[in-house]
Every structure is written in structure tokens, then in C-alpha cells.
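Render this sequence as a predicted structure.
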Amino acid sequence: MRIKKSGLLVALCLIVTLCSMTACGGSNSEGDSSVRLTMATGGTGGTYYPFGGALAQAIDQATGYIRVNVNATGASAENIQQIGAGLAHLAIVQNDVMDYAYNATNTWTSDAVTNMSTLMSLYPEVCQLIVAANSGIDSVADLAGKRVSTGDIGSGVEANAKQILEAYGLSVDDIRQEHLSFNDSADAMKDNAIDGFFVTSGVPNTAVMDLQMSRDIKLISLDEATIDGLIAKFPFYGKVSLTSADYTFLDTPVHTVAVMATLIANPDLDEDVVYDIVKAIIENKEAITTSHAKGEFISAESAVEGISVDFHPGALKYFKEIGVL
């Protein structure tokens, strides 16, 4: 069932009915025992939508009774609102945006959304600082006085950039700040209009890959103490290292932090259903990876990293059962 703004009231009624029949494991209108759920993802041209489809297929095949309908959406912020309002059972979101929404802080300007639970982390969306090779920038501390794009105003990228700058004793007032998209940042660096830019995305990022064809660039590492400090202050971060397998122009590993694409749910979703969903995803990594390359990042260990909003009881039961919590 696709939710459309023009039919919001009808959709609400349908979803209430759907939840009463299926979210707790009941029969559907055709009398079978299937549990039918909706998953909010992202735009059809992005990663969340096709990856959600791969997850849905694995859940269906592994459980034999959970049918997940994948909906295209405006991604994290919209997905959180849908979960909070009961318009979706499952959703894929960035865990930092989830944290902001839960606590009504940072880039989240609406009321707090606490009616959501974590199922598992899925794959990293890496915080990257790209600079010109001849910029003289070898550390985040060297950004002082430089021309740097921190992403669109109010974006998750900007929030990540501000947090990383702060960890090095800087603020946006200490740089010559630009607000550019990934592609516009790459174009600006091609024209020597900026010295560096922040990106938060899966790797490899297409804008970065395009840029490295035009000029010599490098990625800046964060030192270990700073990484540990960021994770201590912002629990949604996790450690990650990039190598030449991620970007061919890297000669040595680059150490940084990442937020996580995270699967969340409405807290009212049945505990046994959630247990089976998480189990199906963890134990069917190969099938998911066959459908979408991001499946390779799925693991029991990484699934419990970067969590700042409580696990759903069904997910918690599974992870405790296999010994990762």
C-alpha cells in the first residue's frame, strides 16, 4: 500500500485496519496467516529504496509469512515521521537523524519523535573530508581560514561537519564556509573555488569519484583520540577505515567515523515478528548481497553499533540470544 498525501485520511484508516490484522500476527482479509507490513525507504534513485527491496525479499523467503511492501519516500526525516505517526511499520533512516528526532536537537526542528525503536544497523554512511592534494591541509585543524563546503544548510552533512570541527577546537566561524551539494562541491573544487568539502555517504561517493578524474585529491584522517571522543559524545557514530578498495586513489588507510543506515520500527510491532525479521536479515546476508551490494556490510557485530535509541524487544531478544549484546 503506497501512502499518498492526497489520501492521508483514507491511508490512516487503512493502516489502522492493517495493523490490527497483521502487526500482531493475525490473519489478513483473505484468511491466511501472513503478516503484511510497510517499509518506508527513500527515493527510487537512491540506495534506501532498492536496498529495502532486497531486505523485503529476504524476509519473505526466510520467514515464509512476513510480507513487506516497500514504499518510496523522502528518506530519513519523512520516514521517522511516518513511523512516529503509525503510517509505516518499518523504515530505513540515518541513525544520527534518528537521534536528533528522538531528542528534538540539532537539525530536528519539529517536536520530538519517541514512538520508534531500533531493529539493527545496516551499513555505514561515512563522514569524509575531501581536500585538494596541494591544499596544504593534512588535518581537520588545518581547515582554519580555508574555503570549505559543509553541505546544504541544515543537512545531516552540516551537522556532522560541525561536530568534527568542534572536536578539533574549530567552528564554522573559523572557516570560509560554503553550503554546496556533493556535486556542486566537486565542481567548485575542479574550479579551485574551494579547498575542501565534507561528505556523509556510502562509499565510493560518485561525486568524489568524478572529481578524482579531474584533479589530485586526498581524504583526511581523524586521529584515534578524536574518533573515540566523538563516539563517546555522539553514540550514533562508529569507527570506519577507508582503503584503496573504497577509493583507488588512496595510498594509505583513512580513519574516520560513520553514521549508520539503520532499520527502525514502530514499538507496537509484535516482538516475535521483529525477532524473525532481524534473524532473517542477519542469517541471509549472502542472498541480500546478491540483490544489493550494501548487503556485504551486514553482520551481527555491526548490527548493534551506533545505537542511541533503544532496541525493540524482539531485536534485543535475538541479539542477546546470539551473544552480541
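Summary. The radius of gyration is 21 Å. The first strand starts at residue 35 and ends at 40.
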